[in-house]
Amino acid sequence: MTTKSVLEFKVGDAVVYPAHGVGKVAAVEVQEVAGMSLEVYVVTFDHEKMTLRVPTKKAKTAGLRSLASEDVVTKALSTLKGRARIKRTMWSRRAQEYEAKINSGDLVCIAEVVRDLHRADSQPEQSYSERQLYESALDRMAREVAAANRIDKDAAVQLLSKSLSAKKANAPVAEVADEDSEAEAA
């Protein structure tokens, strides 16, 4: 057995993995992989009925992180109140960008997707793919806000809906596709 390293996460900690959202550290195990001992976090995602093993030494580079701080949650909620920014690019390109933001695990980036794809009752219907991305982003954001605020997911969805309904203006702002501003936003 190898000597235990100082671990960033403990068993029972709620963590965020970028591609899967909020999970819980169920265990820290030492596993034999290709003849080498490897210490891993065992992270369970109840909503996806999935277990993920992340090497403890690679957890940071893999994007495993603690829940968002109160400041980040506040910034994300205020992002929802802003005006939607929709680039004038083809939907397929925007969809890829939205998907990348959702999978980045960054709560503020996810909030931008929710804000940009949200439709008020007075606005036209969303396409199927828009609705899928919106619901994915809303679900991911609600789970992290719920875990960070120690509330259930339904209460978090209500909190997000309240922030969305407090938008300053319903009309989205169309932006000219600008590679430089996209690089700065990333």
TrEMBL record:
CarD-like/TRCF RNAP-interacting domain mapped to chain residues: 8-118
Comp. bias (Acidic residues): 176-186
Database matches in SUPFAM superfamilies: CarD-like
Region of interest (Disordered), residue spans: 166-186
PANTHER family, per the entry: RNA POLYMERASE-BINDING TRANSCRIPTION FACTOR CARD, TRANSCRIPTION FACTOR YDEB-RELATED
Parts of the chain that traverse the membrane: none
UniProt GO BP: rRNA transcription
Coiled-coil annotated residue ranges, if any: none
The protein's name in its UniProt record: Transcriptional regulator, CarD family
Domain of life of the organism encoding this protein: Bacteria
